[in-house]
Amino acid sequence: MTMKTRNQNAYQSGNAKALPRGFTLIELILVLSLLVIVTSLTAPAMSRFMRGRALDTEARRLFSLMHMAQSRAVSEGAPIMLWVDEKSGTYGMAAETSGQNGDSKAENLTIDSTLAISVVNTTTGVATLFNNLPAIRYQPDGTIDENSPQTFKLVDSDGFARFFTETKLRTGYDLTDSAQ
Q1: Rg for the chain (alpha carbons), in Å?
Q2: For residue range 45-73, what is the model confidence (pLDDT) as tens digits?
Q3: Between vectors from CA 146 to CA 144 and to CA 149, what angle results, nearest 5°?
Q4: Contact between residue 117 and residue 135 where contact means Cβ atoms under 8 Å apart
């Protein structure tokens, strides 16, 4: 005795309304067309989202380096410099004075190619420099030197920006979306 499937029974009994076994070419083309339309509508939004992520990621990275420099100045009891090179799009941290072998804990970072960094606001006195670049000087007590820049700006290619503004007590920087 052999077992017959439902479709075999339908074909053998002459029933022309058998169940379909797959998708037609028209159905596949329709689904692919809908995917192309949805993708073309969401691609520009995803591109803007990714650029915004680069700005936020770089802002967090710079903010973390600021905290690291401040912590290092306090723990080592020596001034630490956080410098910014606007032209090359780099920034970093190093001890103000280092030994013959240099600073083994120095950091040099490059910003994303879609971003620019700049010193927006400097003090009225003599600006703090490190290797002829504008710099934040973290004192051994954790405060920021009074001649350090008051505001840094990170901006992306669409003009969106993040600002690092020195706090009133010169104990750090606040991260905001607008200059204050």
Answers
A1: 30
A2: 777 666 678 899 999 999 999 999 999 99
A3: 80
A4: no
- Tell me the CATH class for 56-176: alpha beta
Question: What DSSP element (H or E) covers 80?
Answer: strand 80-85
**DSSP 3-state of 171:** coil
Contacts of 145 (CB under 8 A, 6+ apart): 79, 128, 136, 137, 138, 139
Joined together, the tokens standing for residue 37 give: 């339309």
Q: Which of 176, 154, 148, 162 is nearest to 82 (CA)?
A: 148
Which residue in this structure is represented by tokens 């991260």?
Answer: 175
Q: Please give the residue that has the higher pLDDT: either 131 or 178.
A: 131
Extract the tokens encoding 12: 């053998």
Predicted TM-score (pTM) of the model is 0.72
Write down the residue that tokens 């990621």 correspond to: 57
In this predicted model, what pLDDT tens digit does every residue of 104-122 receive, in sequence order?
Answer: 899 999 999 989 999 987 6
- Distance between CA atoms of residues 167 and 129, nearest Å: 20
